[in-house]
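[Q] Does anyone have a clean structure-token version of this?
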Amino acid sequence: MKFASTRLIARDIKALVSFYEKVTGQTAEWLTPAFAEIVTSGATLAIGSAETIALFKEGSAEPTSNRTAILEFEVDDVDAEFAKLKDELEVVLEPKMLPWGNRAAQVRDPEGTLVSLYTPVSDAAKKRFGSR
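[A] Here you go.
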């Protein structure tokens, strides 16, 4: 088995894709006007419009209702990345050190999903993530 991607369902797919292009520095590949993917070296983020739910089972997913998942992005400099986003979105956590050795910040994407940006700082965290 291969874990292929995480998919978000969006009320406003263009705004959500634009946000994640900014966060990842990657350009999305639009497979249809209702579905895009952002492929990074570590994972693929798929984004579908709310209309795509009808292809599966009506009501099986809802945009803007996620309060259980955190999408995490390892970045070279969490403070610099946070500075780019903090004025545009809801800030949940300003950059701070966490007990497991990462410096992290959190914001909510345009649809309300919690997004964590982190930089491994401690020697143990750097070793765990294979960072420099």
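[Q] Thanks! Anything notable?
[A] Residues 1-63 form a domain with the 2,3-Dihydroxybiphenyl 1,2-Dioxygenase; domain 1 fold (CATH 3.10.180.10).
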